[in-house]
């Protein structure tokens, strides 16, 4: 069986200009493309995000994943991070956002997962669409009409998240399943990118940088140059071949190039999407 979505991937990470430690972690090997932004101070955040990546790493190498596969990986990751509390890292926690390759009746699909304020986007036909929804105080205020998008950029509460893996949170992850299309470019990133680089600039880079590794490198460098107040991690995933119906694969023009500081709110609530 061949993978329902074949991809080309680029990934980059940087500590930023103000942090001594990079608490971000990422996994960008098919069929899993995720970013985890750790929190909890020295070592705790780094260990938490690393634990999430380690659990999802068990899924690498499969052609496609089902929702249950991802749910179980999240559950294992939560258990691993919660275990850190017994070693003295009581506030260790992490966000999780990303996509995995999935399928429905043999057709290529993306399955996105999110908990926290790292983000997953789809860039297609020149349009940047945010797939994930932030689990943050700022997002709640925006949804309630109590804050404008412009005000949110400088609000002192912008780093407070309402769901996480660990850090005392019991909030569930959100999931989205949607068809993959030839030419899709998925962007997964920690908030170290989106807090520094505008949507307009992200669109410009994703439009002009054909190579996903180059796109990830440029976006990361832009975030550092803009201030780099937090760790920055960027994963770019290009769908270059997609099964659109049983037995049929749609190939992109570049098929020859295939190579296979966040903190939690004290009280966390929320349902499953």
Structure described in brief:
The chain is built from seven helices and 15 strands. With about 270 residues, it is of the alpha+beta class.
Write the layout of secondary structure elements.
Elements: E1 5-14, E2 24-29, E3 32-39, H1 44-57, H2 67-84, E4 93-94, E5 96-104, E6 107-115, E7 119-124, E8 127-130, H3 137-143, H4 149-152, E9 160-161, E10 165-166, E11 174-179, E12 185-189, H5 191-194, H6 199-208, H7 212-225, E13 232-245, E14 248-251, E15 263-264
Parallel strand pairs: 9-15
Antiparallel strand pairs: 1-13, 2-3, 3-4, 3-5, 4-10, 5-6, 6-11, 7-8, 7-12, 12-13, 13-14
Helix pairs in contact: 1-2, 6-7
How would you describe this structure to a colleague?
- The protein is α+β, with helices and mostly antiparallel strands and about 270 residues long.
- The protein has seven helices and 15 strands.
- It has helices spanning about 45-55, 65-85, 135-145, 150, 190-195, 200-210, 210-225; strands spanning about 5-15, 25-30, 30-40, 95, 95-105, 105-115, 120-125, 125-130, 160, 165, 175-180, 185-190, 230-245, 250, 265.
- Strands 2, 3, 4, 5, 6, 10 and 11 form a seven-stranded antiparallel β-sheet that branches.
- Helix 1 packs antiparallel against helix 2 (about 65-85).
- The radius of gyration is 18 Å and the shape is globular.
- It starts with a strand and ends in a 9-residue tail after the last strand.
- The model is unreliable at about 255-260 and about 265-273 (pLDDT under 50).
């Amino acid at each position: 069986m061949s993978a329902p979505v074949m991809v080309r991937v680029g990934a980059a990470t940087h500590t930023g200009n103000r942090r001594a430690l990079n608490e971000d972690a990422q996994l960008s090997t098919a069929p899993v493309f995720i970013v985890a932004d750790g929190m909890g101070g020295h070592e705790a955040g780094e260990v938490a995000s690393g634990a999430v990546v380690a659990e999802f790493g068990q899924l690498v190498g499969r052609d496609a994943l089902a929702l249950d596969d991802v749910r179980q990986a999240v559950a294992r990751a939560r258990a691993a991070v919660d275990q850190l509390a017994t070693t003295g890292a009581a506030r260790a926690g992490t966000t999780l956002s990303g996509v995995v390759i999935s399928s429905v009746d043999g057709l290529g699909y993306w399955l996105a997962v999110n908990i926290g304020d790292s983000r997953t986007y789809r860039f297609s036909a020149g349009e940047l669409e945010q797939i994930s929804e932030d689990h943050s105080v700022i997002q709640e205020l925006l949804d309630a009409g109590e804050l404008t998008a412009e005000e949110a950029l400088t609000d002192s509460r912008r780093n407070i998240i309402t769901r996480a893996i660990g850090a005392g949170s019991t909030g569930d992850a959100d999931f989205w399943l949607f068809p993959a299309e030839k030419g899709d470019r998925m962007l997964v990133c920690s908030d170290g990118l989106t807090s520094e680089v505008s949507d307009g600039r992200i669109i410009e880079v994703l439009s002009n940088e054909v190579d996903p590794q180059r796109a990830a490198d440029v976006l990361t460098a832009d975030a550092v140059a803009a201030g780099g107040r937090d760790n920055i991690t960027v994963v770019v995933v290009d769908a270059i071949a997609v099964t659109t119906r049983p037995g049929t694969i749609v190939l992109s023009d570049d098929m020859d190039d295939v190579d296979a500081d966040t903190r939690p709110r004290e009280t966390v609530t929320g349902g499953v999407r």
